[in-house]
Amino acid sequence: MSTYRRRILDDELDELMGSLAAVAIEGPKAAGKTTTALKRGATIFRLDDPAVAEAISAEPGLLTSSAPPIVLDEWQRLPTVWDLVRRAVDDGAEPGTFLLTGSASPTELPTHSGAGRIAQLRMHPLSLAERDVETPTVSVHQLLNHPGENEVHGTTDMGLTRYVEEILCSGFPGIRGLPGRPLRTQLDGYLARIADRDFAEQGLVVRRPATLTAWMRAYAAATSGTASFDAIRRAASPDGAVPARSTSQPWRDILEQLWIVDPVPAWTTTNNALRRLTQAPKHQLADPALAARLIRVTADQLLTGVNPGPSIPRQGSLLGALFESLVTQSLRVYAQASEAAVRHLRTRDGDHEVDLILERDDGAVIGFEVKVARTVDSDDTKHLRWLRDQIGERFIDGVVVTTGQYAYRRDDGIAVVPLALLGP
After folding, report:
1. 264 near 281, Cβ under 8 Å?
2. Is the pLDDT of residue 1 over 60?
């Protein structure tokens, strides 16, 4: 992008760097970590440049003698810098001295975790609010921190076709502005690099990249669901040549280290009435555009209900799954800004399910249901009302996120909010 678009995470960085000596921004490649860091840095060390990495290895004092803020870009390429930064913090480095970025967990772990010295901050691809498609009127922060005081209102002209466009065009800042074929080519290149280069950099050479891609395609088809990994393995090889668990498990581990596979953990509680909750995560990739591109689904196919991907057990349509992925991507950004965790809820017998749950540190929660619909009826709010009945005062709000036109609150107390009107 020619001009920098301020991110929601920038507000978090302002707060942290004003008090802490070292902050690490982590997230998938192309999410915008380096661009954000470079806007703040006085000294830049790009550690994916072998010459720079060699210079730091030979003369570690360069880190402490340079003008702050000091940006260590792709720090995982030289894991020893983590310990150098940690020691500099212990020696009294001033707030805002170090800003690290990383697009993978290092293969060689630092000596020390950095706990208490280096704050870690996750960067996701652009949320819908950061894409400037609409002006949000309903704040997640307000819903979380001022329950009962929020007027839910607003109108948007954004309809289903535009949401499909946002699913397909990606939240990666440097990719989303491209038209048709260039966009698809960039997404294909992003995915190909994972198998061809990123896995090798993480210490695992993929001997059959096509088999890994088939597994990723099956995982993408399971988006927003809790299908078993055995089901995903079988879907990856419909001809019967199913990859062994001992093969697919390392793939999954590395994809999580690269922040490409980004599952939503299950919500847990000590409430005796909710002992039957599943512990299975809900499958998500870092960006719904990656899932759509792996499945090779087009806008027309999504809008007409065609599913060209592998056969995976799923509740609802592929469009519904990818729309929920877009909602999840955005809610993760908004929740992090408010220091809330994102989870999902499903009972083991499947009779109750809440698509997403935001939980404050004190245990208070907001339940979110996601509907590819313009209207909402009582059946769409039944799981939220059930959860409210189960946990009482811990349930501070319930929201149905839609593709409709209006934001409002129903007579049963549940809010209805189009995704375009939901913001931090």
Report:
1. yes
2. no
Average pLDDT across the chain, whole number: 93
Contact 353, 363 (CB under 8 A): no
Alpha helices in 59-106 (DSSP H): 61-65, 80-90
State pLDDT tens for residues 341-386.
999 999 888 789 999 999 999 999 999 999 999 999 999 999 999 9
32 in Cβ contact with 175 (< 8 Å): no
List, as own/partner pairs, every contact residues 350-358 make where C-beta atoms lie below 8 angstroms and the sequence separation is at least 24, other chains included. 352/383, 352/386, 352/387, 353/383, 354/267, 354/383, 354/384, 354/387, 355/224, 355/324, 355/327, 356/264, 356/324, 356/327, 356/328, 356/331, 357/267, 358/140, 358/144, 358/331
H helices then E strands: how many in the chain?
A: 16, 13
Identify the band that residue 313 occupies on the pLDDT scale cut at 50, 70 and 90: confident
pLDDT of amino acid 10: 98
CA angle 222-224-225, nearest 5°? 60
What pTM did the predictor assign? 0.94
Strand 422-423 and strand 353-359: the pairing is unpaired
SS3 (DSSP) at 137: coil
Rounded CA-CA distance 198/186 in Å is 16
Chain mean position to CA 388: 27
Measured distance CA(309)–CA(295) in Å, rounded: 5
Residues in the chain: 424
Read off the pLDDT of each residue in 32-38 and give the average, rounded to a whole number: 96
Amino acid found at 374: R
SS3 202: coil
Tens digits of per-residue pLDDT, 13-29? Answer: 999 999 999 999 999 99
Quickly count: other Cβ atoms within 10 Å of residue 267's Cβ. 23
Q: Which phi and psi angles does 230 have, rounded to 5°?
A: -65, -40
| 241 burial level (CB within 10 Å; 0-12, 13-18, 19+) | exposed
3-state secondary structure of 247: helix
CB atoms inside a 10 Å sphere around CB 145: 16
Task: Give the whole-angstrom CA distance, residue 305 versus residue 300.
Answer: 8
Residue 358's φ and ψ, nearest 5 degrees, are -100, 125
